Amino acid sequence: MRYPVYLINKKFYYLLFGLALLAWRLIINYSHDLIPGIGGGYYPVQIRAILETGKLAFRDMPLYFYLNALIVKMIWLISGAENDQVILHVTRILDSMIPPLMVIPFYKLSSRFTGDDLKWYFEIPALAYATLSIAPLFMVAEASKNSSAYPLMAFFLFYMFEFFRERSSTKAFFAVLFLILTGLTHFGVFTVSLTILLISLSVFYRVRAIPIIVIIVVASLGFVYLFDPGRLDSMLWVPVTLFRNAMFRYGPETYSLITYPATLIILSCALIILLRRKMKPERYDRKVFVILLISIGFFSLPVLGREYFNRFSMILFIPMFILILQLLSISARGIKWVIVITIFLTVASSFIYMIIKPKTPALSQDAYADLKKFGNMLEKPSSTLVIPRHGIEWWTTWELRTKIGGTGSLDQESFRKYDQVLVLVHKKGSYHKNMPVHFAIKEPKISGDHKVFYESDHFLAVEIDSTDLSFYSE
């Protein structure tokens, strides 16, 4: 790549875009007193549980939480004081810092697939798509675990493709290492990475890949079961649930829709080049091209279940970056500019969406202050079960140190196990209008006779002594 003097060099742009993403994520994370997002309180709860008990409060892939806990513990030891506020700051800062690190594997991928041949005015749009499209911007705060797996997946893809190029045991070791680290961080990103690996093995080795594919699948199931048995159940039911409530019938979330046109346009360009045999690189690059085309195409199918489709759409920008680099390297000038314009519109739409629907906490500050007052009414928080609606359960257990549950998990054992069982209704003081559609929440309603434990402008807490919840409608 021949950069004019004033453009400095390729590394500068990767650093610049990484810093831009870092700044964005810091702004979002510190835009409110509470961590933004419907699940913003989940991370502090898990980290505090590790610090106090040595294990997670809720089964999940553990790496991100233990990394947070380690840093918090070091700060506590240095400062000589154990302060819960440190947990909140550490999770915000790590969530801001880790995802931008993906510019490092992006740079390595670019150097491998384009060298210095791609013009700067084509490479910069590809980098913008990889760092400033909706997924890196939107998956912040409440999605710390998801986005922290992004750099790990990008490193995995780099070393995996390097292994297929060189057949190096060192590259194989690092590919496996980063795949395991991805799995220890986030289940969804691991699933997409694993699928790309299986497709890659099929393309490079064909029938000979069947035994190793079987081994990898079985090992992956065991790996997931070891850390989160519930996830294994989800994996085993994927053939049944994958196409349930298809996206084309129910529509995607707005944030998924932002990138979908770009995905279709870029996939179409790739398919045209492949079918017209316009692509004439070495055999290896063609196979990588096919792998990316199949992988992205599969995870973008409109027949996928709406939930799966939305989740996959927040991960595909990583393999898409590689495909875009390849396309911009081999396409005719007209196709290149179609891709550049598509990327520009996608990035612009991503920022517009985030400005119109900014990340906000599940509770307003006034409601959170009222939640504390409710907590002061509890005589034995540790032996109290509170059943709140989704979105405030994490802040409830974080602030009040009570146990939390859902109406579906309530049984007679609950009343033997806990001294007090309360249903908590959030009356007002939320940011639901800014939440994505699938997080749109209807506040539960209380009707008929019930024993009021606490009532204010923001909350109504009802004490119950049986599993009969006929008075409570979600």
Explain this structure to me?
It is built from 23 helices and seven strands. The chain has helices at residues 10-29, 42-53, 63-79, 84-97, 103-113, 120-132, 134-138, 144-148, 150-166, 169-185, 187-205, 210-227, 229-236, 238-241, 247-250, 254-275, 283-299, 306-313, 317-330, 333-356, 365-376, 393-400, 412-417; strands at residues 384-387, 403-404, 420-426, 445-446, 451-455, 459-464, 472-473. The strands form two sheets. Strands 2-1-3-6-5 form a five-stranded mixed β-sheet, covered by helices on one side. Strands 4-7 form a two-stranded antiparallel ribbon. α3 crosses α4 (84-97), α9 runs antiparallel to α10 (169-185) and α10 (169-185) runs antiparallel to α11 (187-205). The radius of gyration is 24 Å and the shape is elongated. 43% of the residues are buried. The model has no long low-confidence stretch (mean pLDDT 86).
